[in-house]
Amino acid sequence: MTGKPEIRAEARRRLRALSTEERALAEAEITRLVWTVPEVAAARTLMLFADLPEEVSTDAIAAQALHAGIALVYPRVNVETRTMTLHRVTAPDQLAPASYGIREPDPALTTRVDPEEIEAVLVPGLAWDRRGGRLGRGAGYYDRLFAHEAWRGFRCGVFFAFQEVPAVPTEPWDVPLHAVVTEREVWRGESLARLESSAGD
Known about the structure:
Layout: H1 4-17, H2 20-34, H3 38-42, E1 45-47, H4 59-67, E2 71-78, E3 83-89, E4 95-97, E5 103-105, E6 111-113, E7 120-123, E8 127-128, E9 134-135, H5 141-146, E10 154-158, E11 179-181, E12 186-188, H6 190-200
Parallel strand pairs: 1-2, 1-7, 7-10, 10-11
Antiparallel strand pairs: 2-3, 3-6, 4-5, 8-9, 11-12
């Protein structure tokens, strides 16, 4: 199995090679497909990430959500504890560059939200696989959030199609995604598919 450093390096190489036109076309399709995921479309409180330059842009998704009256929540990281606090954002200017250069909610302008209030979350990463495995940047912020006893939200990864790998190396504390949206498809995890099938019987 290829290790995490090699997968991260290859993902970053491919992301850097993506042309502006290819990125724009892919992001437009991802933005469209995100809303075909029933759990995302039905969420009244949706957690997003403020993308880094190499990640899928979520600004159009945020604008659509706000227009639809969906409550938007963004994370703010605590570097010392490697944890995240969640804040409701009602306008783009409530985000400003902070830790790691990521745009984060200004705590003076936003309201703190508890994890149990999140109905669905869109999650970034460098790689994913069809077991729901996700490879992030190594700090473990999202896994700690998803391990919170109050977390109930639907976990949906947002990736470019070429970020799929045969297998993401996992650790016992890694929390799998329920679904992944790329510009080519919406993938749903096998465990989720079995749950849906049994519910329909």
